[in-house]
Amino acid sequence: MAQTLHDIPKNDPVAVPEQKAKIDRILAENKNLPGAVMVVLNELQAQIGFVSPAMQAYVAQQMHVPLQQVHGVVSFYSFFTTMPRGKHTVKFCMGTACYVGGMPQLIEKAKQVMNCDIGKTTADGMATLEVCRCVGACSQAPVIVIDEELHGRVRPNKLPQILKKAQQ
Amino acid sequence: MKYFRSHVLVCVDPECLSKGAHDVLDALNDELVAQGLIDEIQVLETSRIGGCTVGPELMVYPEGVHYVGVSVDDVPYLVEEHFLKGRVVKKFLAPPKTNTDEELGAPTSKEVRVVLRNCGKIDPENIDDYIAEDGYAALEKVLGGMTPEQVIEEILASGLRGRGGAGFPTGRKWQFARASRATPKYMICNADEGDPGAFMNRRVLEGDPHAVLEGMIIGGYAVGASRGYIYCRAEYPVAVRTLRIAIDQARAYGLLGENILGSGFSFDIEVRVGAGAFVCGEETALMASIEGKRGEPRPRPPFPAVSGLWGKPSNINNVETYANVPQIILKGAQWFASMGTEKSKGTKTFALAGDVNRTGLIEVPLGINLREVIYDVAQGIKDGKKLKAVQIGGPMGGCLPEAYIDRPIDYESLAEAGTIMGSGGFVVMDEDTCMVDIARFFMEFTQDESCGKCTPCRVGTRRMLEILQRICAGEGRHGDIEMLEDLCKWIKITSLCGLGQGAPNPVESTLKHFRHEYEAHIYEKRCPAKVCKGLIRYEIVDACTGCTVCARNCPVNAITGQRRQKHVIDPNVCIRCGICEQVCNFNAIVIR
Lengths: 168, 592
Hints:
By secondary structure, chain A is an alpha+beta fold. In chain A, 42% of the residues lie in helices and 11% in strands. Chain A folds into two domains: 13-76; 88-166, Glutaredoxin (3-Layer(aba) Sandwich). Chain A contains seven helices and four strands, in the order H-H-H-H-E-H-H-E-E-E-H. In chain A, strands 2-1-3-4 form a four-stranded mixed sheet, with no helix packed on it. Chains A and B meet through helix 2, helix 4, helix 5, helix 6 and strand 4 of A and helix 1, strand 9, strand 13 and helix 23 of B.
């Protein structure tokens, strides 16, 4: 949901001076590029980890674009998230090759191991589980990506060990 | 250029990186400094050499020695033995090359490498490597004495067609953009390779980025553009990084920017990164995304050549199309036109996936038939099973049954058979694949990725998916097939962009060629390939030794039994995930 800049939650990046400085720097560096909204949001997502409603409002105000445009972009693309995420991100590739290679079974097993549903963050805030589109490593299917690290040819019995990386 | 007696190429493919290639790279540099060899031996990064499964791997030239499985601790020994004493370290020597690079192996006799010629051979982060392979020679030829019209004429004569899938003649596209009067004009490269199972463009961008840049600069000169954008998907961080390095290097060499090579022509390129929306591969949606908006397509005309990015004339081509351009200019249109069929010239890269012995990237001359690709290039079906279907063209493509195996691969022939060239996904499926399930899988993908702008695509694909899900769950009804056919027809005709128009293809083609499977699901409540969960049951047979592996791996504890005694699966608890079948060492679990 869209939000005004009047009542920002205390822990929002816009209200935390350190992170606000980061946001301001990203804005200053990119806001004059043509088509800057996407570039700025991509950078925010990469550096802050999410784009909160208050951040969207702030970006809109600073860039002199309607809030609906910023929110429209955030809600359209699957890469943007509006909530803080777990320390680690575990992505399960659902490309054709991984699907055929047994990804649905791996996901079932992972849900059990992590005690967490797909699209959710574990209770201890350690990992966010998500399904993603083909990562283009089909020759190694099935593929799980933890943060930026790729794990290929994952077998169900090897899965718990791989997932340990996302639990600490 | 500095002279080195030896070069060490370290693979920084994602797989090797995950095994610590960067640490090995750093250790190598440190050790060479420590041994005082750093001025004699240069360490470079490269893409996959071919031994990533046992990585990190490196290649030492000029000897051509390929080492694998090198860890940081091994580096001092390796440096001392190989570079100081000149002895090859047998321990790390890669096994003799049979077919080691799983993504891009040595070309088979039926392959021709044009677009992929430099991949894995040069350091993508070093422009000098590209220049040594005739890089930017085509640009020099163009700027040194060809008019834009002559460039377009050459591309037209070559018969090059868009490699993004639709196959529109590239020269014609350039002509249209050239004819537009408004300025500035934009050159756009579509690197939003979103089809599941396709990774040809990623390899080109990661392995030979300058070929794409050179093609874009030449195209920019031909149409009179001053600026280029490469729109790359966010799922390819390595490609984005490689491209940015390549652009910086090209700028430093005066191959991008003001007054390129003293010709008076100015052109610059910027990389824009997507944010995970498949529809942005559609050209009008892609341009909206570069403009910083929601990536929703718009009706055409006006075509991008008239009114594209920011309402200005724009030319948009695929990565592979641009990568072909420099070599056409350099070797001539005749050379390019000598490959392929009458209407489809040149080569095409495909990403082979599925149940074949050799998966990975291939590049074949157009006109080759499916049999040659599957049985010669891909070395046949895995485990000696039978071929069932080939899915070409990604989620907008169709499934071709075995009967089409002698059909040549070219734009017209594939369209006739009910599929599309697409960007080059090529999934081979064996007899164990359920075609209804595959249709459902693709429909789930397109339904999820539908941007929601136009109703036929937004609502229509949802309705189709619901029917397919029902059929797969064993709840198919009389009339479902007819309803699907009807929906296919109307969604195709009335959707706004290629996504909606192509979305019914997987269903339509499977309905046409594998109708009996749909009928078995609906009327006999049977999944012939034993895939659809709602229609199968797992059972443990007498071969069970009671080893308990299945019971321990079952996510829902549906398996019970005493150690050393035959176990039993409770069908009411079982979620048919199939893990037990995978982990069983005695083939004691069967599907009924």
